[in-house]
Amino acid sequence: MSKRFEVWGLTGIGEVRAGDDVATLIAGAATGLRDGDIVVVTSKVVSKAEGRLVDGDREDAITSETERLVAARGDTRIVQTRHGFVLAAAGVDASNVPKGQVALLPVDPDGSAKTIRDGLRAALGVDVGVVVTDTFGRPWRNGLVDVAIGAAGVTALDDHRGRVDEHGHTLEMTVTAIVDEIASAAELVKGKLDGVPVAVVRGLDEHVQAGASGAASLVRPADEDMFRLGTREAMRAALFVLTDEPTSADPVAAALAAATPIGERPWRFDVADDRIVVRLTGERTDDVLMGAGAAIGSLLLALAQNGVRARWLTGDGDCAAVIELDPR
Q1: What is the DSSP string of 37-55?
Q2: Is residue 98 part of a domain?
Q3: For 9, phi and psi rounded to 5 degrees?
Q4: Contact 281/324 with Cβ under 8 angstroms?
Q5: Which residue, of 199, 224, 249, is where some domain finishes?
Q6: Of 189, 224, 259, which residue constitutes the final position of a domain?
Q7: Spatial distance between the Cα atoms of 97 and 88, rounded to a whole number of angstroms
Q8: Vertex 266 angle, CA 265 and 272, to 5°
Q9: Is 160 found in the same domain as 184?
Q10: 244 falls in which pLDDT band (50, 70, 90)?
């Protein structure tokens, strides 16, 4: 195992345009490339070369690239892309591109990495690994890091399970994301504003392997994902029976849509300007009151999730309760 490695940024790549051959550009700037080196390429230049710059509104582009909404807070959307990546704004980026355009992630980042690897072999006769990177936020931690979204010819995951440490303990859980570690190391010399989209890592020859699995192997399967939804979205999914996600811009209407069960019920919600009255439409039995109480609880949670302050006041007769909105 290597105990030391080097990493440096490549200058002289220049502005990349649609139709450019990224491997040819790298070969011109990295004449000293050797077998066993790992070339780390920012996804932005791959997107530019592959014609993934599009005109139009960034929010519309995010929607078009979204496979599944994970969480939303204000204007920020955490989504899953068609690749399986979970990240902010579907990786759509308006930085370092012409005004009025946005960059989308490459369609097949592993395929892009392989194309660059093959191109470097053809141009320079070297056997290198290639990692395509993008910047992700991280749950539970502030700050951004670069991670691998595509890889070719380099180990993606190093599975330590079954190995024995120096104290004789058998490792049972550890699987290291090698390509993510390489991506983050390379970002230290590329930077966000320095115009250095490519780096070379030397000294990790043991991780350069033909036929390695690619970065797609890092995407966690849905049945193993313990954090598949944001907190509010998970609560909504657990507590409410929905026919469709509420689309109303009115937070009270959205809460009512979320909290109203499907089918017959012996009560209804009557909405006024500053209150919601829960009225019984059937006989006042214990079961009916329990059902109405559960509905009121769901409504209060839905209102809170939609940012509406509310207070539950008891009712009488056919008025089971009054939900006072925005109480002071």
Answers
A1: -EEEEEHHHHHHHTT-EEE
A2: no
A3: -90, 150
A4: no
A5: 224
A6: 224
A7: 18
A8: 95
A9: yes
A10: very low
Task: Give the other-Cβ count within 10 Å of 297's Cβ.
Answer: 13
Domain count, the chain: 2
Whether residue 38 lies inside any domain: the answer is: yes
Instruction: Judge contact between 97 and 52, C-beta under 8 A.
Output: no
pLDDT tens digits along 48-102 = 999 999 998 999 999 999 999 999 988 899 999 999 999 999 999 988 888 899 9
Contact status, residue 269 vs residue 277, Cβ threshold 8 Å: yes
Residue 201 parent element (H or E): strand 198-202
Task: Answer yes or no: do 141 and 164 share one domain.
Answer: yes
Residues in the chain: 328
What's the pTM? Answer: 0.74
Range(s) of the domain holding residue 315: 231-325
Q: Does residue 71 form part of some domain?
A: no
Residue at 90 is within a domain: no
Greatest Cα pair distance, the chain, in angstroms, is: 86
| Neighbouring C-alpha atoms within 13 Å toward the C-beta of 112 | 30
More confident: 199 or 95: 199
Q: What mean pLDDT, rounded, does the chain reach?
A: 88
Q: What is the DSSP letter of 206?
A: G
